[in-house]
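Form 7-S
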Amino acid sequence: MNILLCSVPVERPGDPLRRARSEGTMPIMPKVAITSLNNWAEKNNFKTSYYDIDMLYPSDDEIKEFFKKNKPDIVGLSAVVSTSYLQTKRLSKIIKETSPETLIVCGGYLTAAAKTILLKTDVDVCVVGDGEVAWVGILKFVERNLKYVGSSTNFDIDDFLKIKGVAIQDKTDGEIKFSGYGEKLASCDMVFPSFEYLKSGMQGDDKALQNYFRPFYNAEMMVMDDRAFEKGRRPMMASIFLTKGCVAKCTFCQRGSKGYQTYDLAKLEEHLKILRDEYNVGFLLVDDENFGSVKKYCYEAAELLNKYDMLWYAGGVRVTNVTKEDLLHYKNNGCISIKFGIESGSQTMLDIMEKKFTVEDIKKAILTCFEIDLYTSLQGFMLGMPGESKHTARMSGKLIGELSAELGVPVDLLYGNQDLLYTIPLVGTPMYEYGKLHNLIGNTVDEEEKYLELTSNVGAYKRYFINLNGAPMSEVVFWDFLVFLEATRTYRKLMKNKKENQKMIEKFEYQIRVKGMNPQVRAKEKEIRVMGAAGTKEEKSNISLQYVITNFLRQYIVFNQTLSLLPRFILEPFVQYLAYFEYQIQKYIYKDSNNLHTVTNKKSIRDKIRIHTSDLDPEKTSQKDRSLRQIVKLKKEQLDIVLKQTEADKLVGGP
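Output:
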């Protein structure tokens, strides 16, 4: 049986790459899902080949030629994120046109929208949730099926649905059938990526394998610790997962699988040897969603990283997962940088997000890092959830200002070259359901497809913001500026009669120069300019008039400590209306299609959508009541919305 796995890009079909895969300063994350699927298939006596479409980014003609030549019986498309819908539709169409008998299976977080995928693309089967066990179940079924009917797309649906974790359209009645979320692999069966297998997907372009590695000195988080520059260190940097999953269920986060798992430490040690000895790696980006939740394991994993002389960065840590003792242990075992999912300085917003920690928890974790001289980024803030307001944005600014003052580094050095993130309503999240509840996201398959097309290849930035908040756009485009204004005001007040930390300032100035080496940053400087100020001032050139106001505000106003002496009632309206004026220019003169949802500018709609402050009063509501998940549930009850749940509806909420 001819079995093929394919990676799926996120760029819109036909779009040229903004940068080559070989450019960027950060290593590309190895295709962990692909290698895990292959490993489990091999353990069950199936041989799978691999075509890394994401890495190679071939044209339609090149893909057609590949499938005409290879004609697989079954293809697995790994659509890791829900913003890859258009590419999934493109690839499945090409495969079906060139090899009609091929069974096309799609897995990954995109399959939260399995109904739309199955009805609107040429995908035959969706795997929902963890994929390895379901994938092998499909392979076994297809192998049996081929023996009797000679076609991988012609088989008994009821028999097929005995496999847990699959969704498929029943051709007899047109309904989507879902067998329920599938089994997870045991931790002992989880594997680290095989670079030999990944290389096989390059179709002879062996140089492309080097995209999984980058020199450490181009990474902003690696250059903040003096240990990085010690003699004898291996210079290459790679990405790695030490754990899988998350212990939380944040209301903006797309959860395609349930639970939290750790890897086998013996396998980790073997993988570290390969990285060190074969790829000259001495630096690791630990890209876990939730590093530190299983303390004993993480302690031992850190000790192993140190044993192999790795310096490492943990990019996803809950503030309540670490104590001073933990952080010291990690630092003493090679951790040089850590990043917390802060999200907001407003307790109201933290409760809406269901973060289950407090603003004081955030301060404690970050200040402990400052105390032990372990670098932590202050850039884990986010705007735009339902419930966001000028007050909550101002609270985020206040927290940034307080932390900046504790560090002794001006806000403009921390954020002058950094965009604040704006939330994306990902399919299957409570935030997405909130949008559907208020008819801002349609409920039909056609409407959901339109939404998936809208959000293909978007980033978590203001220019892509989908306004499910109910705030007028004059407020939305001001939130990030308001954060910076309040942060600067707070910093100036707290730094009165205090000296700034010159050593840290020098490090941040160097970090900015490192960021400026990133060709994507420079491309944004030259072309997009929505948020501005990345890289050094000397590099700013060819700035589009479309964003001249944004650039002016960031360079001269919002980080200006002297101007922060002005009363809020003077400075804030000035900045807000300049930002809104620029938004109008972008919308009506430049026809900027990035400004996606403006329907909530109508006051009659806004009044229905915005969460009232009385519904978030901590004196009258519990933390659970303030979660967006609970707000959606209660709103449905108030509106007497009783939906008959089909099998396909069960897909959306996650396991």
